[in-house]
Amino acid sequence: MSLRRRDILQFGAALAIGSGAAIALQYFRPLGEKVNETPAVESILADPDAPRTGPETARLTIVVYSDYDCAICRQSHDAMHAALAGRNDVRVLYKEWPVLGPRSDRAARIALAADKQGIYAALNDALMRRSTRLDDATLRGAVERAGGDWARIEADLTTDAKRIEQALARNATEAFALGLRGTPAYLIGPVLIRGGLDEAGFRRVLREAAR
């Protein structure tokens, strides 16, 4: 039996409504989960030792758990910074959580050692935006482009080994306490995001977290 023109139009309208509803549900669906503001969560958000960017007086804090060998971390890094462009009311705390093997672990240790030279943010950005393998040549090049001293980095990996080890252990403990299973993850104020976001997703969560 053939469909009449009116039936076809009604069917098309139903499809359009259904698609619109699906898009609306996707948009309004929570992107993360609100976590209770326990002393542990407050301690993570107020960590005085984590490398950071942004003003200390910022009204909103983002805590980033990431791995330099994680492709989604690198994509989300660009998206987060695009969403934060031009804002001065957000600070970002960086938690090195190298879960993908020895290359990730070495990169994380070098980044933490670089914080003593005041180049953590520049180095983190360079490593997240790199297009090469995460080996020592890449790490050294990134350190030098960030304005750092590679020889000092190598020395600090030894002299600061205890501090670096404690930072990595603390980050891992926090991640497991939050129920994280991998990178990336973001604690944006009271909102916990497991996985990556695009720029629009970050903007949306920033709005929700600031309420």
TrEMBL record:
<feature type="domain" description="DSBA-like thioredoxin">
    <location>
        <begin position="61"/>
        <end position="199"/>
    </location>
</feature>
<keyword id="KW-1015">Disulfide bond</keyword>
<dbReference type="InterPro" id="IPR001853">
    <property type="entry name" value="DSBA-like_thioredoxin_dom"/>
</dbReference>
<keyword id="KW-0732">Signal</keyword>
<keyword id="KW-0560">Oxidoreductase</keyword>
<dbReference type="InterPro" id="IPR036249">
    <property type="entry name" value="Thioredoxin-like_sf"/>
</dbReference>
<dbReference type="Pfam" id="PF01323">
    <property type="entry name" value="DSBA"/>
</dbReference>
<protein>
    <submittedName>
        <fullName>Protein-disulfide isomerase</fullName>
    </submittedName>
</protein>
<dbReference type="InterPro" id="IPR006311">
    <property type="entry name" value="TAT_signal"/>
</dbReference>
<keyword id="KW-0676">Redox-active center</keyword>
<dbReference type="GO" id="GO:0016853">
    <property type="term" value="F:isomerase activity"/>
</dbReference>
<keyword id="KW-0413">Isomerase</keyword>
<dbReference type="GO" id="GO:0016491">
    <property type="term" value="F:oxidoreductase activity"/>
</dbReference>
